[in-house]
Write a structure and sequence with these properties.
Layout: E1 6-9, E2 16-17, H1 22-36, H2 45-54, H3 60-72, H4 76-82, H5 89-96, H6 102-115, E3 118-119, E4 123-124, E5 133-134, H7 138-147, E6 149-153, H8 158-168, E7 175-176, H9 187-193, E8 198-202, H10 205-216, E9 221-225, H11 232-241, H12 244-248, E10 250-251
Parallel strand pairs: 1-6, 1-8, 6-7, 8-9
Antiparallel strand pairs: 2-5, 3-4, 9-10
Helix pairs in contact: 1-3, 1-6, 3-5, 7-11
């Protein structure tokens, strides 16, 4: 820990609570598309979150597409139960045997997340991004930035990063977005840190795979998984205080 040069963070689920934004955008987009296809469009948030955390998805468009395809398959419950850690969209496609309109999916998702769409009888409603909440105090990020090089790798695009800055009340610098590379492409990490070492803090298996892929190309990065019992604020505070607990849950994917 003392020798780490970089602390690199995911944004969603780490710095920002997206349970009432991206999760709902996935749920509502999927329901809209499935309803048009006369299919059952109901998805519970636990299924959405578990699917995202296990899978190798670069953004929530792919999460949504995977769930819609699974719903259109002959046995949704079985497919979701068998979905492996590190599974991707192709895994679902090969089993569902159907295709959907990706452009329509993206347009509806973006409308919900960015603009809110239209509410029956009441006109325009707020975009779901406005329901996000900060999970980390900006002062803590400043303290990390004083001791380490601080960076971010996210499935957001630049516009969505600007929205994250509004939620956090903090300027996000040194950020790699999906316009440049999507996780788990190791170039996302390499383009940010070069050959320097450090730790990546994320909340999905895809984040772990990013570090694994980077290390397989000669990198020296560790990984810490954020979960309900180990929020990012506690992890960052532990790094600053050089707590022994940090070593206990730091991984070296390889």
């Amino acid at each position: 820990m003392k020798n780490w040069k970089w602390v690199v963070l995911d944004i969603d689920g780490v710095l920002i609570d997206v349970s009432n934004s991206y999760d709902l955008a996935v749920k509502r987009t999927a329901k809209s598309l499935l309803s048009e296809l006369c299919a059952d469009g109901e998805l519970d948030l636990g299924t959405i979150r578990g699917f995202r955390k296990r899978g190798k998805f670069g953004d929530d468009y792919r999460v949504t597409e995977g769930l819609v395809l699974a719903k259109l398959s002959s046995n949704f419950d079985e497919l979701i139960a068998k979905f492996p850690r590190g599974g991707d969209l192709n895994w679902v496609k090969n089993r569902a045997g159907v295709e959907i309109n990706k452009e329509k999916l993206r347009a509806r998702f973006d409308q919900l997340y960015l603009e809110g769409g239209s509410s029956s009888g009441s006109g325009k409603i707020d975009g779901l991004w406005q329901q996000e909440k900060a999970l980390v105090d900006p002062l803590l990020l400043d303290q990390i930035n004083e001791k380490f090089s601080l960076g971010y790798i996210t499935g957001r695009n630049r516009k969505e990063v600007e929205l994250a800055e509004k939620i956090l009340g903090y300027e996000i610098r040194n950020v790699v977005t999906r316009e440049e590379f999507t996780k788990p492409n190791p170039q996302a990490l390499k383009s940010l840190v070069g050959k320097e070492n450090g730790v990546y803090i994320g909340d999905t298996h895809n984040d772990r795979l990013l570090v694994k892929n980077y290390n397989e190309e000669g990198g020296e990065f560790s990984f810490i998984l954020v979960d309900e019992n180990r929020p990012a604020s506690n992890i960052l505070s532990g790094i600053l205080s050089e707590s022994d607990q940090i070593s206990e849950f730091t991984e070296k994917p390889s």
